[in-house]
Amino acid sequence: MSFRKQAPAIQNAVDFDLKLPAIQQFALDNNIPVYSIHGGTQDVIMIEFVFFAGNWYEEKNIIAAITNALLKNGTKTKNALAINEHFEFYGAYLNTHTYSETATVTLHTLNKNLEYLLPVLAELFTDCIFPEEELKTYIKNAKQRLEVNLKKCDFVANRLIDEYIYGHNHPYGKYSTIADFDAIEKNDLQDFYKANYTNGKCMIFVAGKLPTNINNLLNKYFGNLPFNYNKELQKNYLPVCNKTKKHSIINDTDGVQNAIRIARSFPNKIHPDYNNAQILNTILGGFFGSRLMKNIREDKGYTYGIHSFIQNHFHQTAWMISTEAGKDVCNATIEEVYKEMKLLCNEPISNDELFLVKNYLMGNLLSNQSGPFQVIAKWKSLILNNLKEDFYYNSIHTIKTTNAKDLQEIANKYLNPADFYELTVL
Fold this sequence. Notes:
single chain; alpha+beta; Cytochrome Bc1 Complex, Chain A, domain 1; 2 domains; 6-stranded mixed beta sheet; 15 helices; 11 strands
């Protein structure tokens, strides 16, 4: 019998034993792997196609992004309007995104409509024609957006700090220019599309309340496509870091606020320091109760928000601190950032603060298992980064067992101000 006047016992998130729900895997007739999670109470499904078609694999700047953006803008049998109206008629959402290494095409729909949507989706992977008018319109709009964004200090800072860390010719460090858009030709898109979509390396991730015939449906419409899962992807880039660590750019002479970036290179997820560094980053600036927020936002009032994070790249990555502050307190803001780094290096983190952050991190992990879409996202991250399930459990173990001494050692190893690039854009 339940007692409504008696509150349930509060359990600390740190005490939970989390288990990642198992993922199912099978291969289509063309060897494309399909990873699936069955769950949820609503008759909704998500199907995501992940192609290794990010800017890491392009020969000409911004080709990857434009190709992905125009996948829905015309095939041999349908124009852009017909394609979009088809998905809208069935209440489906079809989204495309480009990242550094990968590009995605994601469908959200009701299960009962799959038979009507999958044939058109398959057509996008084999019969896109990139109509000249659609390309011209896209480029015109993209150039206008770029011109507007280049007036924003925050936008400029994001571009430049990556260039300083990785180099302008590295996929993580390069950025688009008006000249890049002017140089784009239809043939560039067609060649990239054929190599990296029609004949590209692909994985499929499926989640939701899956129909019993989902494997047959996927194999029917995608198992005969010329995808090439065994395609060799040997393309390596070495970062060419800028030799100058401090940079100050004037982007708007009438501006009143500086965009500030403080960043250093950092190993990726497979490095043994990664999990402890994520905990230390949370304490420094990774959540609303972080030290940077308490000091620079709440105490000093220099900024509306300041955050630190470790970039989510497959290869080299970076530890970044990002904020905007009035130009009269810009230098003071930077000084306070370094003070907080120094404190983490010199003084052990208190048990209360560490316990709070552990609960916060475990709570995040719990919320990331609240539904099939969240679970498949966790598995996708592991699979695309070539990580085993153990990585997930090791990160939980680290959260539960790390101590102040462990984190102080990480701080002294990575939070040396001399190792950081410092950029201000006014």
